[in-house]
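call fold(seq) -> tokens
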Amino acid sequence: MCRINKSFPGVHAIENVSIKLHHGEVLGLLGENGAGKSTLIKVVGGAHLPDSGKILIEGQSVEIPSPAIAQQLGVSIIYQEFNLIADLTVRENIFLGREKTRMGFVRAAEEQRATQELFGKIGINIDPNARCGELTVAQQQTVEIAKALSVNAKIIVMDEPTATLTAQEAGRLFTIIRDLKSHGLGIIYISHRLEEVFEVADRVMVLRDGEHVGTEDIDNLNRERLIEMMVGRPVDSEFPQRSASPGHERLRVEGLCRGQEVRNVSFSVRAGEILGFAGLVGAGRTETMRLVFGADTPDSGRIFINGVDAEIHGPDDAIRMGICLLTEDRKGQGLVLIHSCRENYGLPNLDRLIGRVFLNRRKERREFCEFAESLRIKTSGPEQLIMNLSGGNQQKVVIAKWLARNTDIIIFDEPTRGIDVGTKYEIYLLMNRLAGEDKAVIMISSELPEILGLSDRIIVMHEGRVKGQITDVANATQEDILSMAIA
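ret:
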């Protein structure tokens, strides 16, 4: 790709960016949220037309006006949000729009054989007739890879491919990537998890504010240099320092139960404290916090807020009692993507923003703009559709709407998933600030360095139960957490 430019109203997304990908190479594409990575891959994938510049595939100049043309040219994009139809089978998803037919009838047996051959190439065993909605996230990921290979892809772009995978599943994915590379495919790998980039990439290209910062062989980089290239300044530490002075008890949970998902969970968190929740995927951490927030109904258990027995029958009760939840799935549960930033900000704050009859949009707009400035949310304005923001800026809007509630208990569920290191640090500072204001902060994270770097105490869960607690976090290790998490 040579000197690619792409602008949107009020935003120059990428400016004179060139990129080179070789056969049998994994190129890591890095940058902060809003750096231009998504725009660049949507240009090569045919979702966006560039304003200027040219694209060459195997030396031939090409135009890519649509995703269908991109596929014909051998380019496949595996987005972070999979493009699979849950109610269709694996086979049907792989050949959707390219069905093998004879006299108007789908040749299902031929498609099934082709699907099994594709799975054989990448060393997996999935029933071609299983419905995609019944598969695990890791299995859906491999179906996407098989779908890419089914169109004879020469170039595969993977956007945050391990965001929802366990460590074991991610390891399996890396094995598949190495195998694809050995067969001559070129792979562009986008991730905010730098340790993964060092594991799979041959070269790394960094974008910042829509411009090309540099491209280096992975062997010439270390973690500190890579972060500096991404954020534009030296970063002394990934986690800010803070001295904790916990006060009185803000929240106490006793014997919380819901089926097999949450089994007799008890814990407490105090004012000025960051309580981390660790555990493997499916350990029950998110399910527990949904019960605390009233999003689900417990079978039994009690919740105390500031020492008072609380009756929480729904999120509206929880919000009124001073609890807010930043959900793990910000796009599906934390935001209304077709609404503006201003409207999303206002949703949990309507009781303050509505006058006698009508919504005070001027006040709503003014408040959002104040938070946008303080949290450094990059938008073209309060009326910009939130679906058009980067993941990090979407997360900041979620944070803004809850900060406006000024609640005493704030639950962060995977707050930095899919977010760059610079924005991560800003969120870490914000969490520390909230704890310094005597709020109780609960953080669920699957990233063990993050749990160890931020928490004052750590609760470890396994199969719906609390398996242990770490109080001396400064001297704890990832192995200490994992030994409890897999017990």
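The chain is about 35% helix and 25% strand.
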